Amino acid sequence: MTAITCMKIRMKAEGRFLWNFILQKGFYLSTFSGMTVRQFMVETMKFENSFVDNAVRTVFLNSRPVDDIDGAVLRAGDCVALGSAMPGLVGICMGRDNPYKEFRSGIAAESMRLEGARSEEITVLVKVFSTLAVETGTDLLEQGIRIKTHDLTAFLEKNSAYVMNWDSELCFRNTSDVEIQVEFIE
Fold first, then answer.
1. What residue spans of the chain are helical by DSSP H?
2. Which superkingdom heads the taxonomic lineage of this protein's source (predicted)?
3. pLDDT tens per residue, range 63-118
4. 158, CA 20 to 30 Å: which among 92, 102, 111, 139?
């Protein structure tokens, strides 16, 4: 997989909400194997522990609900989906640490406490949903994410009215992924 170093995009602040689709579709972050889901959210995504405890109520690891974010461990190619509280009975059941988690115990992600911890750098697919995307999207985009080149090209073409400038000299058409940082201008 080839990726350019980093493309910086300057965008009008009112275009922030347009990125929610990309955040929900999925983006890539680099981290280390053996890191727990909590460590990933705090160290890689830069979420505060209190924010993780209070706002990140729905966590999926490879399509499996996670209750023990301090025990679920990341591996290369994993997909982490995060959201705030989901509505309805299904939302309650899928949320972490709830009284109804036994309804879905057969599909829940298992905790795997590993001795020794982090070893190699890995790439994780991340999806951020609902109000969590709204609350964290700006910070994630300013820190930098990696997305598919064709997704970025389509996004820039569709939303050109909000894009102030970007590193157009960088040729990324021959790469599959591109790392981006977005600065929002008031």
1. 20-25, 37-39, 49-55, 88-94, 130-143, 149-158
2. Bacteria
3. 888 888 998 899 999 999 999 876 664 555 555 665 555 555 554 556 565 554 55
4. 139
Q: What is the DSSP string of 158-178?
A: HTTTTEEEE-TTS--TT-SEE
CB-based contact 96:66 (threshold 8 Å): yes
The torsion angles phi and psi of 90, rounded to 5 degrees, stand at -65, -40
Indicate the residue type of 146.
R
Could you tell me the residue ranges of all domains in the chain? 3-185
pLDDT tens-digit map of 13-49: 999 999 999 999 999 999 999 999 999 999 999 999 9
User: Which residue blocks in 3-129 are alpha helix, DSSP H?
Assistant: 20-25, 37-39, 49-55, 88-94
